[in-house]
Design brief:
Layout lengths: L2 H13 L3 H11 L7 H16 L8 E2 L2 E2 L5 E4 L2 E4 L6
Antiparallel strand pairs: 1-2, 3-4
Helix pairs in contact: 1-3, 2-3
Amino acid sequence: MNALEIYNRFRQRMKQYGDQELIGLFNKEVGKPGWGTARACYLAAIHAEWTARGFDYSLVGDSQGLSFRHKVRLVDGVIKRVGYGIR
């Protein structure tokens, strides 16, 4: 299976998840070391799904990618870093 096929499988699966499930997927990746094709496809699929849903993720990324330094929460369609004014 090539990278595009892996990415597409992740995208199809993530389309079925609720918003909070997507946030949970992101948070499980925070602070994890290592990189590989499957992980790159997985993280790109999270990014693409956030974009497709219209989330404002400007605190943790841009159109080029996401930062996995901080766990996040979704508040009214806006991604907020945990520990930065969110209870």
